[in-house]
């Protein structure tokens, strides 16, 4: 049975609400770095060019927002799993670091953790050590994350990867990490 847009929005809202109740640390980590992950800007890299990729259904949350510009690219134009057909949705933050936090994307809510599947298919959360031109002090200094943030983020990503599209994407990113022999720290 096809899931309706309303049902999908309710599901995403529940995920957002669950993640709203936890925070990576008990202080405003933006004060450590001037909210660099929202506003980093340099000659060769502008955060305004940094798009936040949405997970399936998340695009429904941004149809009428002053904080985000919703747009899409065709799946054939980017390196995405073959199972993702048609439009891949993204948002740009219009006025970072200010945004409508009630609808910020999952990718942003669970940072600095990202999902990883090891070669045996076991699911972990790891620090996001992607090749950003800036350093997140939490990652760089191995600042201890709140246990409830880790637990809820793990629970949410475990639910999300039950969707084959999300699984394929996480698997593709994980295999690329393996191929690059990128070191990563398993958090859970
Ligand atoms: S998540 Fe990291 S980079 Fe972003 S505001 Fe917090 S400390 Fe800074
Ligand atoms: S959604 Fe909000 S918190 Fe996330 S990067 Fe954009 S401005 Fe920053």
Major sheet attributes = 3 strands, antiparallel
Shape estimate: globular
Order of H and E elements:
HHHEEEEEHEEHHH
Low-confidence stretches: none
**Number of helical segments with 4 or more residues:** 7
Adjacency order of strands in the biggest sheet:
3-5-4
Q: How many strands?
A: 7
**Gyration radius, in Å:** 16 Å
Helix share bin: 25-40%
Structural class of the secondary elements? alpha+beta
Number of domains: 1
Mean pLDDT: 91
Question: Which strand-content bin applies to the residues?
Answer: 15-25%
Associated small molecules: iron/sulfur cluster
Measured distance between first and last alpha carbons: 34 Å
Structure described in brief:
By secondary structure, the chain is of the alpha+beta class. Helices cover 33% and strands 16% of the residues.
Describe this entry's structure for a reader:
With 188 residues, this protein is an alpha+beta fold. The chain has one domain (5-179). It is built from seven helices and seven strands. The protein has helices at residues 5-20, 30-33, 36-39, 106-109, 137-140, 147-160, 164-179, and strands at residues 41-42, 45-46, 52-53, 68-74, 87-93, 113-117, 123-127. It has a three-stranded antiparallel β-sheet, with no helix packed on it. A two-stranded antiparallel ribbon has the order 1-2. A two-stranded antiparallel sheet has the order 6-7. The protein is globular. The termini are far apart. The mean pLDDT is 91. It binds iron/sulfur cluster (SF4) (2 copies). Residues 29-30, 32-33, 35-37, 111-112, 136-138 line the site of one iron/sulfur cluster.
């Amino acid at each position: 049975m096809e899931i309706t847009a309303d049902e999908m929005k309710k599901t995403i809202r529940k995920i957002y609400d669950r993640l709203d109740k936890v925070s990576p640390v008990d202080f405003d980590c933006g004060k450590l770095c001037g909210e660099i992950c929202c506003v980093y800007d340099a000659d060769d890299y502008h955060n305004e060019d940094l798009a936040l990729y949405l997970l399936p259904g998340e695009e429904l949350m941004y149809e009428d927002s002053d904080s985000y510009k919703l747009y899409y690219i065709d799946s054939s134009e980017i390196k995405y799993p073959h199972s993702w057909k048609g439009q891949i949705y993204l948002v740009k933050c219009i006025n970072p670091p200010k945004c409508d936090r009630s609808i910020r994307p999952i990718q942003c809510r669970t940072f600095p953790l990202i999902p990883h599947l090891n070669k045996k298919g076991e699911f972990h959360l790891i620090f996001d050590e992607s090749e950003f031109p800036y350093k997140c002090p939490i990652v760089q200094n191995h600042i201890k994350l709140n246990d409830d943030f880790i637990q809820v983020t793990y629970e949410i990503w475990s639910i999300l990867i039950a969707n084959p599209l999300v699984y394929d994407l996480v698997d593709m990113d994980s295999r690329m990490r393996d191929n690059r022999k990128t070191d990563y720290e398993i958090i859970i």
